[in-house]
Structure to design on (225 residues):
């Protein structure tokens, strides 16, 4: 079974974000924190629409050229993994790993075009889990995809819990996607324990279906208030 051993830069598109997080037009008017945003185009497109998102990721310490190089190094690894685990994914409407790769690259190029100016404006910040230097309840909504739960083998239960509690501190609502581990359709080994820990701390937790599904079974998000 192919598995990513390290966190890799692999950005999603604005349309992906809408599907992954069940984002409505009203949601897009909120103050949003995108955690582990990586080279996604969500921030860039929101800027074009006159909205502001703060994205956090340790990758933002690097230059555009350095991030581009890392993307170039990551691309063949992802394509290889998609072929080796082909049946673990939903190939519709995109039908091949190469077509998916081109789609992802287009989103990442949109990010790279926006990154230098966005970094100057403070929209891209070199912060990472499990601590953020924001005051309590700074944001209406915090979103995070393809790090928590995705890398359950690499990151411990404590890391997951502390990261989610920190998101709940800085935002009124938290949405995390997906709930399956990378390159599999298996639910995260931490999920049940996280739900129990959050509930015991009087957080409201809700698992919601999404229209977005690329990993088979990866069509749910966790909402925490």
């Amino acid at each position: 079974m192919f598995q990513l051993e390290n966190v890799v830069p692999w950005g999603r598109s604005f349309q992906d974000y809408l599907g992954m997080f069940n984002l409505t037009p009203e949601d897009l008017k909120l103050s949003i924190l995108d955690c582990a945003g990586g080279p996604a185009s969500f921030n860039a497109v929101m800027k074009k629409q006159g909205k502001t998102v703060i994205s956090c990721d340790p990758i933002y310490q690097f230059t555009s050229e350095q991030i581009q190089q890392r993307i170039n190094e990551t691309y063949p690894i992802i394509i290889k993994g998609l072929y080796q685990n082909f049946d673990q994914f939903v190939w519709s409407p995109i039908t091949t790993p190469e077509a998916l790769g081109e789609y992802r690259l287009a989103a990442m190029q949109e990010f790279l075009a926006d990154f230098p100016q966005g970094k100057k404006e403070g929209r891209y910040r070199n912060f990472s889990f499990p601590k953020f230097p924001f005051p309590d309840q700074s944001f209406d909504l915090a979103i995070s995809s393809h790090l928590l739960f995705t890398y359950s083998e690499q990151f411990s239960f404590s890391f997951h819990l502390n990261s989610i509690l920190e998101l709940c501190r800085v935002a009124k609502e938290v949405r995390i996607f997906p709930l399956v581990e990378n390159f599999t359709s298996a639910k995260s080994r931490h999920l049940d324990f996280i739900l129990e820990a959050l509930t015991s701390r009087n957080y409201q937790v809700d698992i919601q279906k999404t229209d977005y599904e690329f990993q088979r079974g990866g069509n749910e998000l966790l909402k925490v208030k």
User: Anything to note?
Assistant: Helices lie at 14-20, 42-48, 64-84, 97-120, 157-170, 191-200. The chain has a mean pLDDT of 94. The radius of gyration is 16 Å.
